[in-house]
Structures are given as C-alpha cells and as structure tokens.
Design goal:
This protein is mainly α. It has helices at about 10-45, 50-55, 70-80, 80-90, 105-115, 115-125, 145-155; strands spanning about 125-130, 135. The longest helix has about 40 residues, at about 10-45.
Length: about 160
Amino acid sequence: MSDSNMKDGDFVRNFSIMIGALVLLTIVIYIFANSIGGAHTATKTADASAVAERIQPVGKLHLAGAVAGSAVATAQAADGAGTYNAACAACHGTGAAGAPKVGDKAAWAPRIKQGNATLYDHAIKGYQGKTGFMPAKGGQAQLADDAVKAAVDHMVAGSK
C-alpha cells in the first residue's frame, strides 16, 4: 500500500476527532443559547396574572336566545322583518335552494294552508321537500325560536 491510502485506524481516529468536535460545538451552542434565552423566559412566566390580563378578549359575544327572556331575544323576536333581512332573504328573496320567494302567492299558498305550526316547525327544525331544502333556522343556529317564528309570520304576511 502507498502512503496516500488511509488506513482503517487513521480513519477511525479522524472520525472520532470530528465527532468530538461536533459534540463540543453542540455543548457550546447550548450553553450560549441558555445564557441568552433562559433569563428572558423566566421573567415572562413569573407573573401569571399579568399574562391572564394580557390575553383577555377585547369584547364579548352575546347570542340571541342564550338567556331566556333576554332583551336581545325579545327585540329580535319582535322584529320579523329584521330577522328575515338578516337570515332569510338570501334564499326567500331569490328562490335559492327551492325556497318560495316572499310575495309569490302561488308558491306560498299550499304552505300557508298547512298552518303556522307546520311552518314554524319546518323553519326551526329544517325540512327537505320535493322542491327544495330548508336548513334549520335558515342555517343561523344562534337565532331564537321566537325570532324564526316572527320571520315566518313576516314572510306569510307578505305572501298572502
């Protein structure tokens, strides 16, 4: 063999030196990172009440009907036109998904004939008919039942 060929012993020795150097470098980086970041994280978590105060929500959401008899639910129920405009007009104003348009007396007549109780039930619980689909509460699960009933009354009144 020539001197240019590396012997197995030389390879193992050089490889061991390289691994040792990498382990030493890793330890130095670890110590350096802890000296910089260690104190910083300790001060952040020291006061849990300060953290809780910083992450408080900006506002609170009150859903209609969440509190039975609340003023919001009562006002919403009394405003059938408002509920219709907010939740029902997308389908009942355009006829989407087979919804009868408000004012279309021919489309509403058989439905009105079934009675308000059936209309309320279909509007609140949802209904799959031959001509279309009515999602429960028009897809607005947060609506109070009384608000849905008021919207139904509004649509019926405009379709007689």
